[in-house]
Amino acid sequence: MKDLISNCFLCEEKALHIAGTEEAQVMQCINCGYTTSTKFNGTKETNEEFQKLGEDMKNWAKEENGYIWIPSIITLPIGMLYPINNKSKELKWAFASMVEIPEEDRKKYPNPSMPGKFYEKKIDTDNAVVYDLFLEGMTMINEMLKQKASSGE
Ligand SMILES: [Zn+2]
Asked: What are phi and psi of 70, to 5 degrees?
């Protein structure tokens, strides 16, 4: 699949990555963090996928260019970047690292798809770092990945 980069319909930066075919297209802006795909075409009123979203996602969603756009959730081996509300109900971005669960705590984290097995790592949302902008979070993730690569981990 070839990635195209275009101007974002929301923030207008040239940071919109377009991937896939017309039937199954994904658009992801790495500046403002909003994403959409073929299944989110139409309006909030008519789109069925939109109805399945949680309350926060529904509130954050924007209609533009014939699509419903929602904030991205970026999941990586080192952690997760995801949208949150601050106290004034403004969209912010939180990064939570992937951490080892101490041996003695693992019993609290059963793996539902592997009975009798427990998770060894978790996303540490209790200690998430909050950024104003999606791009700040992504920049930090890129730094972390670079450091990891150069330390040979
Ligand atoms: Zn954008």
From this structure: -130, 155
